[in-house]
Amino acid sequence: MSELIPLEELPRWVPGNMMLDTESLGWDGVRVREFHYSGLDVPVPGIRDFLVVTYKSGATTMNRSCGGAWQKERINPGSVSLLTQAVRSHWHWAEDIEVCHIYLSPAEVAKTASDVYERDISKVALFDVLRVEDPLLAEIATAFSREARAGGIGGQLYAEALRNQVCIHLLRHYADVNLQERRSGGCLSAAQRRLLDHYIEDHLATNIKLADLASVARLSVFHFTRLFRDEFGVPPHTYVMKHRLERAKTQLANPAIPLKAVAMNSGFADQSHMNRLFRKWLNTTPQKYRNAVLS
């Protein structure tokens, strides 16, 4: 089987009793499930996500092959196994165990790696680790489980904090990260600039968030902000304000458009808000950007 399987199909290959699933909580970039397994001998196709397995109860001798030689380790509660994304594996154990699976999306892992290394990432792969005693990973798994059983009371913010912690820990200790070559000048590409301009023009009447712009450019927020400053000499907020004021200027030239409509169409709450931000923008923006709007 050549296609990568989504985590929803994993129980078909590794049948067990699922005791917890965070799907209904809608956490971004991470999903947690717990299983009770009897002894199994199962080949598993490559899965789409990175997988962290923490062992909650039961002890067994675990045999695993990830496309190469078989490994054999004694697994106990607190032990951790890692499985990188897209790699076929074969698992065999004899005793009953309970495990917690933490699934991390490749996009989220790559985004975190981009933030950590301040570079575009071409590939991230976890090391072939059948057993490691890592209290931090075990504690994060417990925290995820506790949060899920409490109904996700911490919301996205708490889940993202745990997700980022586990991603960064994996990147620092258990991952091979391939960085993309830096482009000459370290600037945004022409395609990225075009997509950004189109997105800004299409969304001027709404609240444009930094994370949305970074997503359009397919970069992490940190990396996007740095490249944007290198490209334009101003932060994204100032660039968006330039577009807002240019639209307001164009529409103000048409007396048929009410001032209130001009403000709303340009993304301002009202005319006074538009005037106030315009004065602030004049005092904080480089001359070339002021000239581009005022000319």
Describe, in plain words, how this protein is organized in 3D:
With 295 residues, this protein is of the alpha+beta class. It folds into 2 domains: 7-179, Sandwich (Jelly Rolls); 184-294, Homeodomain-like (Arc Repressor Mutant, subunit A, Orthogonal Bundle). It is 43% helix and 24% strand. The protein has 11 helices and 12 strands. The protein has helices at residues 10-13, 106-117, 135-149, 155-173, 190-202, 210-216, 221-232, 236-252, 259-265, 271-284, 287-294; strands spanning 17-21, 30-37, 40-44, 50-57, 60-65, 70-75, 79-83, 89-93, 97-104, 121-126, 129-133, 175-179. The strands form 3 sheets. The chain has a 6-stranded antiparallel sheet with strand order 1-2-9-4-7-11. A 4-stranded antiparallel sheet has the order 3-8-5-6, with no helix packed on it. A two-stranded antiparallel sheet has the order 10-12. Helix 2 packs across helix 4 (155-173), helix 6 packs across helix 7 and helix 8 (236-252) packs antiparallel against helix 9. It is elongated and about 80 Å long. The mean pLDDT is 88.
